[in-house]
TrEMBL record:
PROSITE patterns: ABC_TRANSPORTER_1 (PS00211), ABC_TRANSPORTER_2 (PS50893). Belongs to the ABC transporter superfamily. SMART domains: AAA. This is Cobalt ABC transporter ATP-binding protein. It comes from the Bacteria. Keywords: ATP-binding, Nucleotide-binding, Transport. The keyword Cell inner membrane does not apply. Gene3D superfamilies: P-loop containing nucleotide triphosphate hydrolases. Transmembrane segments: none annotated. One of its GO terms (molecular function) is ATP binding. CDD domains: ABC_cobalt_CbiO_domain1.
Amino acid sequence: MELRGVGQRYGDRVVLDGIDLTLSEQRVGVIGANGSGKSTFARLLNGLVVPSEGQVLVDGLDTRTQVRAVRRRVGFVFQDPDAQIVHPTVAEDVAYGLENQGVPAEERAVRVAEVLARHGLAGHADHPAHLLSGGQKQLLAIAGVLVMRPARIVFDEPTTLLDLVNARRIADLVVGLEQQVVVVTHQLDLLDGFDRVLVIDRGRVVEDAAPGPAVQAYRALMADR
Ligand SMILES: Nc1ncnc2c1ncn2[C@@H]1O[C@H](COP(=O)(O)OP(=O)(O)OP(=O)(O)O)[C@@H](O)[C@H]1O
């Protein structure tokens, strides 16, 4: 994924400015203060937001002109799974994206069963999705993305609403993924073992390093506020 001269503004408000990055590492973290531009950055990566300046490219595809192809390559997991869960039952919800892509019913059933089993939701296939616990809902939202087999997944604060047990579960799941992942988080221990961490501050990337030095830079920055 590549950002070239990317800027994002809403009216007079500059939310991101002068972002030039190539993200080729398997695990990339994004940290920074509230309102620094992290979610906007995450949303640029799969075309949920199109930059007001510059270009975002995924495998050479421009999010401005090839957003459908980009979305097939880049899955997105929202902070609040309720934003993502739209169908009455667990299995229907996971099947939804596949149905949209025209995957035949038989293959859909196999892929849905497989992903639910892998994420401990097999026993819940026919349960109402809204009755799941917060942790199960987040797993369901992730299963709904994984079933589509995107090559990359962007997570926007995936553990914020979760208790410690479920947060750990999601963290383990993220670490075990074979896809490229970009994770926005305030939970700094989620970044252990990541390849690269970006610190965003006031719309700019102010540190770009391994997790240790990046977290240190972020702490130093916040200590001065
Ligand atoms: N659609 C929009 N219209 C106007 N302003 C927006 C829009 N989206 C984001 N912003 C503004 O951009 C700034 C950065 O928001 P963003 O959600 O990217 O920050 P963040 O770093 O993810 O914050 P947090 O850690 O609190 O989630 C905020 O001041 C926000 O109000």
